[in-house]
Amino acid sequence: MNYIVMDLEWNQSYNGHMGEHPRIPFEIIEIGAVKVDKNYNIIDEYSSLIKPRIYKKLHKKIKTILNYDENDLNTGRGFKEVCTEFLEWCGDDYMFCTWGPMDLTELQTNMDFYYMPKLKRPLKYLNLQQIYANTAISADSSSTVSKLEKAVADYNIPETEPFHTALNDARYTALVMKEMKPKNLKEQYSFDLYIYPKSKEEEIEAIHNNQYEYITRDFASKQAALDDKKVNNIRCYKCNKKVTKKIKWFSNSPSSYICVGKCWHHGNFCGKIKFKPLNDGRYYVVKSIKPIDKEGIEAIKQKQEDIREKRKEKRHTKSNNKNKSLYS
Ligand SMILES: [Zn+2]
Questions:
Q1: Average pLDDT estimate for 215-223
Q2: What are phi and psi of 193, to 5 degrees?
Q3: What is the pTM of this model?
């Protein structure tokens, strides 16, 4: 299997949302990629400019970072032709690697715009930005969205070519990957969430990178998802036994719930439910269960305490305000 380290450049409406085509808010104007073997060596390269069909004028912000202009793009070929050629170049046995999750989303949005066949699912890929965030060198565990430039600088990779052409960025990303070379790289994949599971049969369950992951079909509401047994139960993924809850599910942000449980054989686990909103007010859920240490549990307890305090304060101010208005 090869890794396809891919980077895309895209353009958007010059006039903001006003001139935006709803089916393609971002139009891909360049595909760049390198093929990397299991020893992290670059064995092939792909690069092609795409002649835009929807947004022919480059957005101001995009124009300032790119190293080419509209005239260059006009020498490109249509998206469908380029993308078909690119996917053929990828071969039969490969895994996409990207800096962040956006490139795969935009690739598929553009493919859908031209009614091209969909990529095979479930689609596993390596989010190298996230993998980089877990390394010691990133030195900023609070941020999972470091720029590629930072990673390149952190590893002292010589900056011989400008950033923000797709092929150069793909090359740099591959070099960062080579520097990181985590032992269990293949285990660190993510599931692409461009298409969520449409039925129970399509739901995804996987154990990888020392955690359990469950991606559900859609539910009518957050509550409906929470009421689902398979969503709210937490089991030890190592022995499949039910764990004893230490901290019950609580909402730690508007879009997520967490809990902590203990398996008597395998230690403490943290469960997390993330709600993913869909356009029609429905939700699907990404649930994970992973080991957690004592400090982690203390941090969650503290968070729960903070949230309780804030709620109390809110109620207090509200009732105070009520009283004030009664007497004024
Ligand atoms: Zn267990």
A1: 96
A2: -110, 25
A3: 0.88
